[in-house]
TrEMBL record:
Gene3D superfamilies: Periplasmic binding protein-like II (3.40.190.10), Winged helix-like DNA-binding domain superfamily/Winged helix DNA-binding domain (1.10.10.10). Pfam families: HTH_1, LysR_substrate. InterPro entries: LysR-type_TF_proteobact-type, LysR_HTH_N, LysR_subst-bd, WH-like_DNA-bd_sf, WH_DNA-bd_sf. GO terms for biological process: DNA-templated transcription. Belongs to the LysR transcriptional regulatory family. The lineage of its organism: Bacteria, Pseudomonadati, Pseudomonadota, Alphaproteobacteria, Rhodobacterales. SUPFAM superfamilies: Periplasmic binding protein-like II (SSF53850), Winged helix' DNA-binding domain (SSF46785). This is Gcv operon activator. Residues 9-66 form the HTH lysR-type domain. Keywords: DNA-binding, Transcription, Transcription regulation. The keyword DNA-binding applies.
Length: 301
C-alpha cells in the first residue's frame, strides 16, 4: 500500500473498519456506507494484511474485536469524533448556525411542523431546516438529529427519550360508530390498511393483534408506505388503520378520525430524539433539542 505523510493505510480501509467495529457487523456497516458486505470485508482484509494482524474474530453469528482491533477502534473513534467537531464548527460558521431536524412525514405534519412554528416565535433568529422521509435516517451527516420510533440500529448515537404512545384502531366516524365495542375477531374481518414499513421497529397489524392475544388470520388487502396516506384513506372510509393516539390528537380532536374501542396497545417502544452528542451540536441545535424535549414534557404531543 502507498504511504503518505502520516504513514496511514488508505482511509477507505479505516472507514470500513471503524463502521464494522462500531456495529460489530459487516452487514450493518455496509448499509451505513452504501456498499456491499463483501466490499466491507475486502477493505478489512486489506487492512489486516497491511498491519499483519487479525482485527476481528469471525464467528457464526457476527464478529468480535481482537485486542489489536479494539485498540485501533478506540483510536479511530476518538480521532473521527475530534474531526467531526471541527467539521461541525466549520459548517455552522458557513451556514449561520442552521439546524437540520428530520422526521417521518406523519410526525412532521401532525406535530413537528406546528411545534417549529412555536419555536420560531420564541427564537426567530434560528434557521431550521426540516427534512422528512419515511425511510430510516441512515448515513445523513447533514441532519443534527431526528425523531423516530424505537431505537436506531447505530447504538453509538445518543437517544433522548420523548414519549410512549398508545396504538388503537381508527376509522371514519361512520365506520367507528358501527364497530364500537367490536371483538378482535370482528376487527380482523374488516378492511385493514397495512403499512409497508422499511423500519422493522414499527408495529404492524399482525403484531398488534398478536400482542392482544388474537391468533387468527390477518388478511392484507391494502398496503401503503406512508402513514400520512394511511390516515387519509381511513378518513375517507377506505378501512381501518392503526393510530398513534398521542401523535394524531389533532385529527382525533377534530372528529375527522374516531378511535374504535375497547382494544388498545401501549407501544412496546418509545419515540426518541436521535442524533449527534450534545458536545458536537451547535448552540442553536442544542437550543432546539432542549426546546423539543420541553414541548413534549409540556404535553404538546
Amino acid at each position: 500500500m502507498s504511504r503518505r505523510h502520516y504513514n496511514l493505510p488508505p482511509l477507505t480501509t479505516l472507514s470500513a473498519f471503524e463502521a464494522a467495529a462500531r456495529h460489530l457487523s459487516f452487514k450493518n456497516a455496509a448499509e451505513e456506507l452504501s456498499v456491499t458486505p463483501g466490499a466491507v470485508s475486502h477493505q478489512i482484509k486489506a487492512l489486516e494484511s497491511d498491519l499483519d494482524t487479525t482485527l476481528f474474530q469471525r464467528k457464526h453469528r457476527g464478529v468480535d474485536l481482537t485486542e489489536d482491533g479494539q485498540a485501533l477502534y478506540e483510536a479511530l473513534s476518538a480521532s473521527f469524533g475530534r474531526i467531526s467537531k471541527v467539521l461541525t464548527t466549520i459548517r455552522d460558521r458557513k451556514s449561520g448556525g442552521k439546524v437540520t431536524v428530520g422526521s417521518t412525514t406523519a410526525v412532521a405534519a401532525l406535530w413537528l411542523s406546528p411545534a417549529l412554528i412555536r419555536f420560531w416565535r420564541e427564537m426567530p433568529n434560528v434557521n431550521v431546516d426540516q427534512l422528512t422521509q419515511d425511510q430510516p435516517f441512515r448515513n445523513r451527516p447533514d441532519v443534527d438529529f431526528f425523531i423516530r420510533y424505537g431505537r436506531e440500529a447505530d447504538t453509538s448515537l445518543p437517544h433522548t427519550p420523548l414519549y410512549r404512545d398508545y396504538l388503537i384502531p381508527v376509522a371514519s366516524p361512520e365506520i367507528a360508530a358501527r364497530l364500537e365495542g367490536a371483538s378482535l375477531e370482528m376487527l380482523a374481518s374488516e378492511r385493514l390498511i397495512h403499512m409497508a414499513w422499511e423500519d422493522p421497529s414499527w408495529i404492524t397489524w399482525p403484531e398488534w393483534f398478536q400482542h392482544l392475544g388474537y391468533t387468527g388470520t390477518i388478511p392484507v388487502e391494502s398496503r401503503v408506505n406512508s402513514y400520512s396516506v394511511a390516515l387519509q384513506l381511513a378518513r375517507k372510509g377506505a378501512g381501518l388503520t392503526l393510530c398513534w393516539k398521542r401523535l394524531t390528537q389533532p385529527l382525533l380532536q377534530s372528529g375527522k378520525l374516531v378511535t374504535i374501542g375497547p382494544h388498545g396497545l401501549t407501544a412496546p417502544s418509545l419515540f426518541y430524539l436521535v442524533g449527534r452528542p450534545d458536545e458536537e451540536l451547535s448552540g442553536n441545535a442544542r437550543a432546539l433539542k432542549t426546546w423539543i424535549v420541553q414541548e413534549v414534557q409540556d404535553g404538546s404531543v
